[in-house]
Amino acid sequence: MTGTDAAGDQTAPEVLFEKRDHIAYITLNRPHKGNSLTGAMMPMMKDVWGEVRDDPDIRAAIVTGAGEKHFCTGADVDAVALRGGMSTGTGPLTDEVYWSPHQNRVWKPVISAVNGLVAGAGLHFVVDADIVVAADHAAFMDTHVNVGLVGAMENIGLAKRLPLGTALRMTLMGRDYRLPAERAYQLGLVDELVAPGELMETAEQIARSIAANSPAAVSLSKQAVWNSLEAGYSQACEYGWSLLRMHWAHPDSKEGPRAFSERREPQWTTVARPEK
């Protein structure tokens, strides 16, 4: 699957999902509407991320947008206007929002392959990704305040990955400020900047490299690093130490050194799918 699948088909599924060679491919598939998000897509994304989280054969995921112009332009504002408000409820965040891997408690690596403009709620898929690869023509902006809405979750994520002034400039200036991909790369929001034709190939190379490693060790390593953003240094190190010690009981912690010593490829342990 590539970001150009079904680019002109308005009757195609709004979210495309494919699994191949331990990698999940997720494509936001509304190119005729800037790959914007609808209320109907929320349960789809919850199901997709649940599959990524629970399928032991999946070791990494790539999320992208259909076409070459837009990655995701946020909520479909026309649909919001027609409905008279947002479709999400008023409960806690953990009960209402399921766009990103972080919001679905996915502890497998996620690569965001940014193929074009990212705006508003589309930033969920960027700030909560583990690695961001962007085409050099892509750009990032936040338009919540332009349509009378509060920039919050995505913008807090921006403040974790950008200098505060840049995050606030995007948040407060709205559509009047676009962060170009090259500048986003210089500031650290983007990890790899490539020509458009190299976007998916680069994302797949990263995903394949990750998928070759111990799934259990990768998952716990991701948890250790992300947790450090929400804790003091000593507390984060203590949590990391507990994960490290816990993994000593896992078969992969013995298989890895043994395979290295025997000069062969390791055979990682695959856990069973959780029961529903």
TrEMBL record:
The keyword Magnesium does not apply. Pfam families: ECH_1 (PF00378). One of its GO terms (molecular function) is enoyl-CoA hydratase activity. InterPro entries: ClpP/crotonase-like_dom_sf, Enoyl-CoA_hyd/isom_CS, Enoyl-CoA_hydra/iso, Enoyl-CoA_hydra_C. It comes from the Bacteria. Residues 254-266 have a biased composition (Basic and acidic residues). Keywords: Fatty acid metabolism, Isomerase, Lipid metabolism, Lyase. One of its GO terms (biological process) is fatty acid beta-oxidation. The keyword Lipid metabolism applies. Residues 254-276 are annotated as: Disordered. PROSITE patterns: ENOYL_COA_HYDRATASE (PS00166). It catalyses: a 4-saturated-(3S)-3-hydroxyacyl-CoA = a (3E)-enoyl-CoA + H2O; a (3S)-3-hydroxyacyl-CoA = a (2E)-enoyl-CoA + H2O. PANTHER family: (7AS)-7A-METHYL-1,5-DIOXO-2,3,5,6,7,7A-HEXAHYDRO-1H-INDENE-CARBOXYL-COA HYDROLASE, ENOYL-COA HYDRATASE-RELATED. This is Enoyl-CoA hydratase/isomerase.
